[in-house]
Amino acid sequence: MHPLIHLIGLPTDQNSSFERGAALAPPAIRAALWSDRGNLSAQSGLEIGADIALKDIGDVPLSDVDCATDDALIIQAVTESVDADAIPLLLGGDHAVSYPIVAALAARHGPLNILHFDAHPDLYADFEGNPRSHASPFARILEGGHAKRIVQVGIRTLNQHCREQAARYDVEILPILDFDLEMVPILDGPLYISIDLDGIDPSEAPGVAHPEPGGLTVREVLSIIAKQRARIVGADIVELNPTRDVNDITAIVAAKLVREIAAQMHKNYEYL
């Protein structure tokens, strides 16, 4: 038995703290995904369309103005996807979208184990007075009881407040200093994967609003995903800012991540 995967765009950046542009990401990622410059095979040989059932649902019609309304629309889209026996793979948008996505999935599956790639821990109680900031989604997720374990990889901007938040919520932050792939655990299910593209070094993913040198390589991210064995119940790829991209490099990276996450969803479907 193999899963149906729904590709869902979330064109919003109303909760971005520095500059907007992430709302333009879903069509940029789709253009790279379907482009004839590459093909639809993952590194394992599994291919979208031949082996992997992936259906592009299009973009959720978000207002990008009213966060509460848009949260409800995101929850509805994720819930409808799960009701259709599909696994949602969502294209942000800024990282604030992870909160309603995870809330909707946890309502169905119970608290999730989350594998989070990022330069930033996104644990602020609020950022610049906005509790729904893209710097705060994991604080909201933890407050809501939607996660039983969060492992964060690539973090290299950990300030005192976020250290306190991580200790408060027992978040597992793997140090980027002297990082080794063996540090990353194999998580139990239900598993959610959240990839902020600025977790990847800006030499490989320049098209983000908050580039932070000293990050993960694409190869490292792919290897970490490939070692996971639990059923993946959802994933997001967020924070591509096409206005900052160079020759579509970051959009191409995001499209690669779509293929690899979809392949891992397919491979891991029979595991709990």
Top keywords for this entry?
eight-stranded parallel beta sheet; 8 strands; 272 residues; globular; single chain
Give a verbal description of the structure.
The chain is 31% helix and 18% strand. With 272 residues, the chain is α/β, with parallel strands linked by helices. The protein is globular. The chain starts with a strand and ends in a 5-residue tail after the last helix.
Indicate the structural class.
Answer: alpha/beta
What portion of residues belong to β-strands? 15-25%
The level of helicity is 25-40%
Helix tally equals: 7
Which regions contain 5 or more consecutive residues with pLDDT less than 50?
A: none
One letter per element, helices H and strands E, the order comes to EHEHEHEHEHEEHEH
> So what's the overall shape?
globular
Major sheet description: 8 strands, parallel
Strand order of the largest sheet: 2-1-3-8-7-4-5-6
Short overview:
With about 270 residues, the chain is of the alpha/beta class. It is built from seven helices and eight strands, in the order βαβαβαβαβαββαβα.
Write the topology of this structure.
Layout: E1 4-10, H1 25-34, E2 53-59, H2 67-83, E3 86-92, H3 98-109, E4 112-117, H4 137-143, E5 147-153, H5 160-169, E6 172-173, E7 191-196, H6 218-226, E8 232-238, H7 249-267
Helix pairs in contact: 1-7, 2-3, 3-4, 6-7
